[in-house]
From TrEMBL:
Keywords recorded for this protein, A-Z: Carbohydrate metabolism, Cellulose degradation, Glycosidase, Hydrolase, Polysaccharide degradation
GO (cellular component) term, any one: cytosol
PROSITE patterns found in the cross-reference section: GLYCOSYL_HYDROL_F1_1, GLYCOSYL_HYDROL_F1_2
Family statement: Belongs to the glycosyl hydrolase 1 family.
Catalysed reaction equations from the record: Hydrolysis of terminal, non-reducing beta-D-glucosyl residues with release of beta-D-glucose
InterPro entries linked to this entry: GH (IPR017853), GH_1_N_CS (IPR033132), Glyco_hydro_1 (IPR001360), Glyco_hydro_1_AS (IPR018120), Glyco_hydro_1_beta-glucosidase (IPR017736)
Active site: 168, 346
Name the record gives this protein: Beta-glucosidase
Amino acid sequence: MTITRKDFPDRFVFGVATSSFQIEGATREDGRGPSIWDTFCREPGRILDGTNGDAACDHYHRWAEDLDLIQSLGADAYRFSIAWPRIQPEGRGAVNPRGLDFYDRLVDGMLERGLKPYATLYHWDLPQTLQDAGGWANRDTAHRFAEYARLVAERLGDRVTSYATLNEPWCSSILSYQIGEHAPGLRNRKLALAAAHHLLVGHGEAVAAMRDALRDAELGIVLNLQPTYPASEKPEDVAAAHHADGTFNRWFLDPLFRGEYPQDIWEAYGADVPEVQPGDLACIARPLDFLGVNYYSRGVNSANGSVRPPDSAYTHMGWEVYPQGLTDLLVRLKEDYAAPPLFITENGAAYPDELTGDRVHDPERIRYFESHLEAVAQAVRHGVDVRGYFAWSLLDNFEWAWGYSRRFGLVYVDYASQRRVPKDSALWYQGLLTGQPEGVLLPATD
Ligand code: PNW
């Protein structure tokens, strides 16, 4: 059975997603300040292929062509992120007008093409100056973030009605300050938990600032959530899965939607727990208009660590393909958290694509999208309020610590020429979105 738009509610939004550092390039142009990812990329051994974001997909100059591509896919919407160091090169103080002008043009370009903008304010490119003062481990960064959010809302608020504050605070705290795989590359759990707390406080303060500046905007946050399953029914495996769920999912979901940190994990963290000031949890738990869910895979845990089921399929990231996990996750968000309306803000897969002639054959990616969209439709049939789906990603791009060695795009990027080649999965997505299965993907003309 093939999936169609009829499997989703009438106003369900289909789109594609990207992030600023991963596609823009032009890192020194028009007054942009350095970000922690510019710094991190220059440290030997941090990025698998030794690359950086200086050029990326050159989207900063090719944005109009890229918006044409999104339009020709038949998308309703585009999820993009705003680079804080373009708006405030040092993370504080007056705005850099040329930085805001870029997003102004981009948003106008979306509206001209009938695309609804979904903005994300922070997708990891923190101004380096703020890192020099401690980054997210310093509580002041939360206040700086709220100021930046207000500046963006004041300039774009007449045209952008949907804002996510943070993308994946687990990545910008635990993965960045404890595991050390993302910028700033530290290995210190206490700092990581301070960073996670300040990210959440910054989120809450940004929501307050934007509610004050905008009347009708929809405000939310994007979490990377990974349902965890025990490797067996043995109590020690069940406990391991519950613990993994606690550090990865509940540590963020509980403060946001219940106004408290999960007790079991709080105790397990011992002296590393963050300093919570009076009012913090009420600030973090401010009501939201939506929750964005980034879903890629599940976790399977035993008492001895994480487990890779041997009969499953895996992507080029080594992530298990497990669409049922997305249905389970969405149902749980409704039942356990009474979550606000949900968007799938990212879902997709990396495969080692190759350009053959003018085509890229990526049947596994098509299967991945199809099975996960079916999983979303199933959650909707269960009564979960899911409002939209954004494929990750429009373009192959800078995949963080993996550099350009992992390709998530619907559209192939030849980094030598910056040529864009829609993959078979792009043609498939276009067929789903337009209802014309044999659609031919051409840049839109008017
Ligand atoms: C997300 N992990 O990153 C990001 O939002 C995207 O920018 C990124 O390109 C995409 O997923 C694919 O990786 C993640 O280690 C990075 O669990 C790492 C993890 C999760 C999400």
